[in-house]
Every structure is written in structure tokens, then in C-alpha cells.
Amino acid sequence: WRLVLLGAPGVGKGTQAELLNEQLHACHLSTGDVFRAASKSAGQLSPAMKAASDFMRKGELVPDSTVWEMVRERKECLHCVGGFILDGFPRTLGQAESLARLMKEEGISLHAVINYDLPATEIVARLSGRRTCEGCKAVYNVIERPPKTEGLCDKCGGALFQREDDKPESIKVRLDAYDKLTSPLIDFYKKLGALVSVDAHGTPAEICDRTILALQLKTA
Ligand code: AP5
Ligand code: ZN
What we know:
Elements: E1 2-7, H1 13-24, E2 27-30, H2 31-40, H3 47-58, H4 64-72, E3 84-87, H5 93-106, E4 112-117, H6 120-128, E5 130-133, E6 139-141, E7 160-161, H7 168-182, H8 184-191, E8 195-199, H9 204-219
Parallel strand pairs: 1-3, 1-4, 2-3, 4-8
Antiparallel strand pairs: 5-6, 5-7
BIS(adenosine)-5'-pentaphosphate (AP5) binds near residues 13, 14, 129 and 145.
């Protein structure tokens, strides 16, 4: 499958990408994960990557040119035998157009763009409760999916931390950026006949089953 996961910040795209990938074994490219890893790496950051971590901290989108450079460097992901899951990319019409051009050049097309749908109040709750393991990067939620021992990762025992952009002031900026710049992609992909809408209520496993079913219906 060649998939794009669309949806507001915190709707559960990363959680679903991990679950879907247990079945699909695709290349999972999360632009947010790549930027976060780069900003924590010990090496010297290029000026563009340094600027990217400042945008992220505030909850603003990284400029299209920086995102696109990073995605192009990973274009082998488009040819992974298991397909690919793009998570958090594209996020603007400009990025969607660049992706469409690149895929045309590479002779491939998208199977589906999955749009996860959840009311804003529930999105804020998921974001505010999120904690990430500093060791293995596993994602928890203090309310909905707490670890067995408070503050520690079930998988590796690492300490859990709150992402800087999950603080209330950044959450607001991220949701505004989503409304203005990312939500127009829903119509963009609807017009192309690629959009599959999935209700993001329920447990991660339920949402994953719903996603697989929706994909099967689309190609039936
Ligand atoms: P990115 O990392 O992509 O953040 P995001 O889109 O804001 O998405 P999140 O990672 O916050 O949420 P998610 O939907 O993956 O939810 P998750 O599964 O973690 O981007 C971060 C920043 O990088 C951006 O703000 C921007 O600055 C920059 N950036 C990245 N890509 C860019 C691009 N293409 N262009 C420009 N800038 C870019 O779940 C959230 C929480 O909910 C967790 O606690 C989880 O445990 C919980 N949860 C998940 N599912 C459920 C469920 N079913 N029930 C209850 N809780 C659940
Ligand atoms: Zn861990």
C-alpha cells in the first residue's frame, strides 16, 4: 500500500502508522519524527534544520522548502517493497503538489489518503496527555493509555517526557496551522478520488481495524 495519513495534530496518526505497519511492513516516514531526531542529534545542524526546530517548538509549520529537501533525500522510501506510509506529510497544498510531481516522475501513484476525523476537544485531550519514551520513543497517554508504572516506559524502562509542542500555547498554534494550511488537503484529495475518511473514536486497535476495512472497501 502507498498511503498518506492525514488528520489534525494528535488525532493518532503516529499510533495508527505503527499498528498498520505490523500488517503492512511498509516504509513509515514521519516528517515530525525526522525533524525531532535531527534537532536532538549531536552533530552540527544546518541553518535550515536549526530554524526547523524553532518553528516546531512554537507549533508552527516548517517551511515547505526545508520539508521538501528532507523528503527528497528519502525518496527511496517511495519504492519500498512493502509500500509506504507518509505520516504528517504532505501538510500544505504546495507539499501535496510537489509530492504528486515526484510520484509522477517515479511512475507511481497513491492508493489512498486516510483522513482521521475527531472533534477538537478530544484532540486537545490526546495531545495534552501524550508522553513519549526518551529511550525507544514509544508513545503513551497519561489518561487514555498510561504506562504500567507512572513516568516509565513499559517496553524499555526509559523515562517519559512531554513534547515541548504539547504545551497549551503550542497546541493552539498547531491547531490553527492545521485549520488554515492542512485541512484544505481534504478537498484536494477528495477531488482526486483518493480520500478515505476514518472515524478516530475508540481504541487504537478498533481504529486500525476500521482503517483496514475502509482500504479493502476502496479497492473492492
Ligand atoms: P508531527 O510530529 O507530525 O506532529 P503532529 O501532526 O502534530 O502529530 P502528532 O505527532 O502530534 O500526533 P499524531 O496524530 O501522530 O498522534 P499520536 O499517535 O502521537 O509534527 C510536529 C511538528 O513538526 C509540526 O508542528 C511542524 O512544526 C513540523 N512538521 C512535521 N511535518 C511537517 C510538514 N510536512 N510540513 C511542515 N512542518 C512539519 O497520538 C497522540 C496522543 O493520543 C498520544 O498520547 C496517544 O497515545 C494518544 N492516542 C492515540 N490514539 C488514541 C486513541 N485511539 N484513543 C486514545 N488515545 C489515543
Ligand atoms: Zn521505551
